[in-house]
Amino acid sequence: MDLFDRIMELSRYGYFCSQILGILALEVAGEENPDLVKAMGGLDGGVGYSKGCCGCMTGGACVISYFTGKGGAFEHESPAHKPALAEFTQWFQDEITADYGGINCEDIIGTNPAKRVEYCPQIIAASFEKCMEILQEKGLV
């Protein structure tokens, strides 16, 4: 199954942008973590459905942090953590603003729910691909 089909399948199960990104990251890692998927739901709809910052930007940052961040009291984040986050967020701001007029859900879909079906899967796929590209370039996945 290709990435877009997997995104559509997860969407049919009722998952939204950031949760889908979380599930995809867990699949790459060969792990399951329903609690993480639930927590990622707080980023959906522009952080708590506020129509603010797109859940793909915040969710993508979480995906990168999942592979690079500090996980325990005696662990350290990867040296690539902050540079990878900066690269992803800059890419997101540049690309999504150019293509959709901004990085907030309100900018992207406005008041037209049909745009969510049209735009969001594409943004999810592009965000996940960029996260994986950044992580692969840094030898982290």
Short description:
This protein has 141 residues and is mostly helical. The protein is 67% helix and 0% strand.
Structure, described:
The protein is mainly α. The chain has one domain (3-137). The chain is 67% helix and 0% strand. It is built from seven helices and no strands. The longest helix is centred in the last third of the chain and has 25 residues, at 113-137. The radius of gyration is 14 Å and the shape is globular. The protein starts with a helix and ends with a helix. The relative contact order is 0.16.
Helix and strand arrangement:
Blueprint: H1 3-12, H2 17-29, H3 34-40, H4 55-68, H5 81-100, H6 105-109, H7 113-137
Helix pairs in contact: 1-7, 2-3, 2-4, 2-7, 4-5, 4-7, 5-7
Helix residue percentage = 55-70%
Query: Largest sheet at a glance?
Result: none
Number of domains: 1
Terminal CA distance? 20 Å
The H/E string reads HHHHHHH
Estimated share of beta-strand residues: under 5%
Q: Using the alpha-carbon principal axes, give the shape.
A: globular
Structural class: mainly alpha
Task: Evaluate the radius of gyration.
Answer: 14 Å
Structure summary, number of beta strands: 0
Poorly predicted ranges (pLDDT <50, ≥5 residues)? none
Mean residue pLDDT: 96
Q: In DSSP terms, counting alpha (H) and pi (I) runs of 4 or more, how many helices?
A: 7
What descriptive keywords fit this protein?
7 helices; 141 residues; mainly alpha; globular
